[in-house]
Design brief:
The complex is a heterodimer of chains A (672) and B (101). Chain A has 672 residues and is mainly α. Chain A contains 26 helices and three strands. Helices cover 70% and strands 3% of the residues of chain A. In chain B, 77% of the residues lie in helices and 0% in strands.
Chain lengths: 672, 101
Amino acid sequence: MTQNPYLWLIPVLPLAGAAINGAFGRRSSKKAITTIALAFCGAAFLLALKIALGFSSAAAPYYFDLAPWIRAGNFQADFSFYLDQLSLVMLLVVTGVGFLIHIYSVGYMLDDDGYYRFMSYLNLFMFFMLTLVLAKNYLLMFIGWEGVGLASYLLIGFWFTKDSAAAAGKKAFIVNRIGDFGFLIALFLIIQHFGSLDFTRVFAAVQPLQPELAGTGLLTSIGLLLMVGAAGKSAQIPLYVWLPDAMEGPTPVSALIHAATMVTAGVYMVARSHVIFTHAPGALTVVAVIGTLTALFAATIGIAQTDIKKVLAYSTVSQLGYMFMACGVAAFSAGIFHLMTHAFFKGLLFLAAGSVIHGVGGEQDMRKMGGLRHYMPWTFWTMTIATFAIAGIPPLAGFFSKDEILWMAYISPHGSWAFWSIGVVTAFITSFYMFRLWFMTFFGEYRGRPVIHDVTHQSADAQAMHAKGDQHGHGHGEPHESPWVMLGPLVILAVLSFVGGWVNIHHRFDVFLSPVFSTHAAFSQLKALTTQEVAQIEARDRLELAFTVISVAAGFLGLLLAWLLYHKRRDLPGKIAANLGDFYRAVANKYYVDELYAALFVKPLLEGSTAILWKGVDQGVIDASVNNAAFSARHVSENVRHMQSGNLRSYAGWVAAGGAVLIAYMVWMGVR
Amino acid sequence: MMIPLSCYLILSGILFTCGVLGFLIKRNIITIFMSIELMLNGVNLSFVAFAAQWHALSGQIFVFFVMVVAAAEAAVGLAIIIAVYRTRETLNVDQVNLLKL
């Protein structure tokens, strides 16, 4: 490992930006706030880029010990940073996409009263996310992990005067606590058994252990608990419920935190802990099953949503499921590859959706959009690229990553045809609901009311939209294109969504990551092959080609069906929904999962707390004892205060009487 | 002829008790002040009686100290009494009650 003294600057730069804007932003001009926020975030990006350029050829990871933190006996956890190929990919995604979204936010949020607050929070988020990615030990990673949760909470509830936004922020925070609980216990187990939280030391200790094939044991428990944490942060079953609600936040937040970066932290953490997981096949299977089920489950909910951001939210949950599916079959590099392409196209989808919402005056209901391709061509074309990318149409980014995941889900030693088939079905559904969104938003006639920027907007982004409308003076009643400061990031992300998948042609991305995931040494097989092996490989290649054709066909089938239902025969969806009856209602209501959780956990907890903790312990014991102490003191004082009459001679009488009693006592006892 | 110690002590006790009773009963500040002097002198008497009995000087020295303090106290006290009389035009302690609730 080589030391790199600039490593710590990458996370600290955005922190400085956050601190400056947070402390002085209220009084400084918007131009100054913009400059500071973009400069510090951009500097982090440039620094990351510089380090990346120097890194590509070197295989040895960089590290830097900034300062000692906890030293207790043999245990040691320092502020140290670590950069290997895996963190480098994350670093570039986070700083790159993050910087683009910062630029976009300038256009989107400039007229909001809390602009300085927003930019400060965004920078703060970058700091914590980069800490998470660059940490050298689990504890520092946990700091970042909690920090991004905090930033997410602050930004979901950014418009905190709205009840639903405040509630969504709380929900996200509390659901994440459940996951963090699992993560923490996993860390305690690691400390107890390996005496360290340092990645290199823990993994070196795990490496020589036997894989726990029986499906139980220490490593399996650690793996499962880590997965609980990952499920919370990355919105997997059963803890995914917070992510759709998180769409209450401003759209750039949805793009940055709840699509491109933070929610992928769980995937990163699982990939980072791959040594533990590959030694615990049982935990690995659980990861794969959870990922696969989440992918399918969330995708089906996505079909019936009408809010454009909710569709994307469920799509994010579903795509995260794919990443966990990949990690679960030990194809970590495929998961990270999908993480990267997903950051491009899902970030783009959200930003484009924000542009659409902006264009139609704060409306989020897709039923009230339509025909927008004539009004906002740039948004339309960038969104088209993103939609084709997520649907897995070649040669766009999503095709490469999703195809690799599906192939690995089948061919990997941990894989199974079940993962693959559910994955293909999910790919079809994904393509269907994404093209449904695409057709409903951009094709047909404009179904919304004229765009008037009045105060009656009901959507989450209405406030920003309203202010923006005043500034640009859009009173012409038609949807309009967004300004270039917003379109620029869209175009860059569109290019990335188009070409981003090409990095893995000939498995170059897998080979790049192979020093990290040493399990994939198989990619660099240079030895001479026997004819039998050649035949095997050829058969494998034919199978892979067939699988690719099937998954692409699933993508096109989704496109076709969406075209039929939402463009050609617009009357059909309603009829189908009516025929399905209860099932459709269940899907549209997200399978009543929120209601189920409310009845199973929230309500008993709330009522138990009210009856026992509030009325019983707090009011009955704590309040009562304090009040009783006060009341008795008052009672006693009320009796004693009569002595203090203010009459001097009565005081003198008391003194004389006291003296007399003392003397009598001494005489009586014979004290001399 | 030696007067026994107990006589002095009884006289001292009577003086002291007179002082206490005067202090408690009287309303005029000057009378109360004189009662305090009476108590001090009662104590002084017991000091000198013991000093004479045991041939120890320390008792007499105590008495000097008490007299010094009493003289100082009398000077300050009388000044206060004059000041009180000038502002309140009364020396009745029951009417000098501004600090009372």
